[in-house]
Amino acid sequence: MSRFADHEEDAGYNTAFQDMLFGIIGVIGAVAIILLVLLKPTVEPSVATEEGEPMRGNLHMEIFWPNEVNADIDLWGAAPGQVPVGYSNMHNPILDLIRDDLGDYQDITHLNYEIMSARGLPEGEWAFNVHWYGNRAGVAEIRVDAVLTINYTDSEGKTVGSRVRIEIRDVLLTHQGQEVTLIRFRIGPDGRLVPGSQTNLFRPLRSPVQ
Predict the structure, then answer these.
(1) Whole-model pTM?
(2) How far apart are alpha carbons 36 and 191 in whole angstroms?
(3) Are 146 and 61 in contact (CB under 8 A)?
(4) Cα–Cα distance between 60 and 114 in angstroms, integer?
(5) pLDDT one-digit tens code per residue, 124-174
(6) Distance between CA atoms of 166 and 6, rounded to whole angstroms?
(7) Helix (H, G, I), strand (E, B), or coil: what is residue 198?
(8) Given this model, what pLDDT does residue 37 score?
(9) Which of 2, 54, 170, 204 qualifies as a cystine partner to 46, CB 3.0-4.6 A?
(10) Counted domains in the chain
(11) How far apart are CA 76 and CA 66, in angstroms?
């Protein structure tokens, strides 16, 4: 009789243990679900390009120079009525310098590029320059490529109409300290690129004292 009693006691113990185990698992699952909800990024969805890549903002200017050349090339940009943006003044109400590339210095990727982005397309003239700041590689010249992308959006940030992409290739810098205008253009009152307004006529953006 005692043998059956012991078996019933063991069965009761096992049942209690299983209940406790499932209870713990349930609590852990509930906590995990709560954390996933709380930690979910609260960001607006990206606007997708035609290639399916996300693009935020109304304008991107990117410059690239050979990855093997350890040199510091700076991107400068000017939006209408705003102080020019560059490494020494990385933000204004319209433009932001997202990446200031110093060549190989503190760069684990060894990719040479800088990116500037604009939120909004106010009417007036825009301009973008490159400036050869540093030359650790000791090279005599550097070729720079650039890509300008203009993204027309509505008030909710959704892309409207075709996106404008302008490639600017083989801009030759021949000496350290040189500043070259990549492109100047006008945005009209309708918030769109004015046809025929593009030029590379030099307009200095970088202050001589910087």
Answers:
(1) 0.71
(2) 40
(3) yes
(4) 10
(5) 999 999 999 999 889 999 999 999 999 998 777 777 777 899 999 999 999
(6) 84
(7) coil
(8) 39
(9) 54
(10) 2
(11) 19
Q: Which residues pair with 183 in a beta bridge?
A: 128
- The pLDDT-based confidence of 44 (bands split at 50, 70, 90) is very low
For the chain, helix, strand, coil in percent to 5 are 20, 35, 45
Is residue 115 a part of any domain in this protein? yes
Give the torsion through C-alpha atoms of 103, 107, 111, 114, to 10 deg. Answer: -70
Assigned token pair, 103: 């060549």
Based on the fold, state whether residues 33 and 127 are members of the same structural domain.
no
Residue 60 structure tokens: 């991107």
Average pLDDT, the chain: 80
Q: Which helix (H) or strand (E) holds 32?
A: helix 2-39
In terms of Cβ atoms closer than 10 Å to its own Cβ (0-12, 13-18, 19+), residue 12 is exposed
**Number of residues written out for the chain:** 210
Give the domain extent around 169. Answer: 47-187
> Is residue 76, in this structure, part of any structural domain at all?
yes
- DSSP character at residue 46: P
d(CA 191, CA 146): 22
Short-list 209, 149, 146, CA closest to 180: 146
Distance between CA 44 and CA 48 in Å, rounded? Answer: 12
